[in-house]
Amino acid sequence: MIEKTLQHFNIDGFQQDLLTWYQANKRDLPWRADQDPYRVWVSEIMLQQTKVDTVIPYFQRFIDKYPTVYELADADPQDVLKAWEGLGYYSRARNLQNAVKEVVATYGGKVPKDREELGALKGIGPYTRGAILSIAYDQPEPAVDGNVMRVISRVLKIEENIAEQRVKKLFEAYVREIISVNDPASFNQALMELGALVCTPKSPDCPVCPIKEHCTAYREGIQQELPIKTKAKKQKRIPYAVLLIKNQKEEYLIEKRPDSGLLANLWHFPMVPLEEVEFDEIANWIFREYGIRVTLHDKLGELKHVFTHLIWQLDIYNAETDDSNIKHSELIFEEKRNLKAYPFPVSHLKMMKYL
Question: Which end of the chain is more exposed for a tag (fewer CB within 10 A), N or C?
Fold first, then answer.
């Protein structure tokens, strides 16, 4: 199949046109300042599910705080989560730190350039592995993300569902055949850049595209129809009442989330699942869960927080308690001024204005 598709494809011409465009048009991004594998690694992890403009200040602050694998390996995990606060998908930060610890312990602080060793590290999948090996180590390894699949599906007219894992492996096989052996770092970044700037999901700017003469979809006028992707399942909505519980010392109750699962190890204000608890039973639920008696006051506002697979509908309430003794190890009362030291999910950061 691959050989047949590429039979009349001008690989050399495609590479030349793509790389020439990239050298003239690539964005000046902080992680492109050099080919340091650690910096490439951090940037690629941050860029998963997150836009470039959002990542830039986070990347700069993170590298300033943890300039090498050694500082990150030795850091307090709560400090790492705080540095990641607002980027979302916090398992990325936890996996990155765990993998960096292994790099320090097993590989003397040097990010492996061996394909198998690198791929065995926590949080490094085929895309991140390919990005590090190609960008940092100039190895002709494919790095296939959504941008790359979109470009290649249009160029080669691949009419397969990109939501399927087997199809992603198919794209990796195609890229392995057409990648520039002489400059794989630029080639992979050029495909990503083209997908981000020109070959966009909607309304691709085909007239200015440097590779349009190589693009089957453009010739056939079907660029808007590719890539093919099944629609994701509808996200489940989960309603919560979030209580900003203040004691007589003007301290607020916060809770640390479990070590695994959604938003692991972050802190949040107490959340009452309204699918399970009637509104009139909120105070009783808090007493059963936390062992403190609260008085519920006014509703302060509403927030919606969207995850990949679900949506939190958050109703925010003022509450008070006369109890200050907490038996639960993952609960503490903290002064408002000290809350900024804890890593919170974005939704709960937005609630700080109500304190």
Answer: N
Longest dimension (CA), the chain: 78
Q: Look up tokens 């700037």; give the residue.
A: 197
Tokens representing 106 are 């097993």
Both structure tokens of 342 = 């804890």
Pairing type for strands 310-321 and 236-246 reads: parallel
- The pTM of this model reads 0.85
Catalytic positions are: 44
For the domain covering 2-225, report its CATH number.
1.10.340.30
Contact of 227 with 312, CB cutoff 8 Å = no
Q: How do the domains of the chain map onto residue ranges?
A: 2-225, 236-354
- Nearest Cα to Cα of residue 224 among 234, 233, 215: 215
Q: Tell me the average pLDDT of the chain.
A: 93
Rounded Cα distance, 172 and 187, in Å: 14
Cis peptide before 210 (omega within 30 of 0): no
Token couple for 70: 């050694």
Query: Alpha-carbon torsion 34, 45, 50, 271, what sign?
Result: negative
Residue pair 254/53 in contact (Cβ under 8 Å)? The answer is no
CATH fold for domain 236-354:
Nucleoside Triphosphate Pyrophosphohydrolase (3.90.79)
300 near 244, Cβ under 8 Å?
A: yes
Q: Which phi and psi (to 5°) does residue 25 adopt?
A: -125, 0
| Tokens encoding 131 | 């990005």
Angle formed at CA 92 by CA 161 and CA 350, multiple of 5 degrees: 105
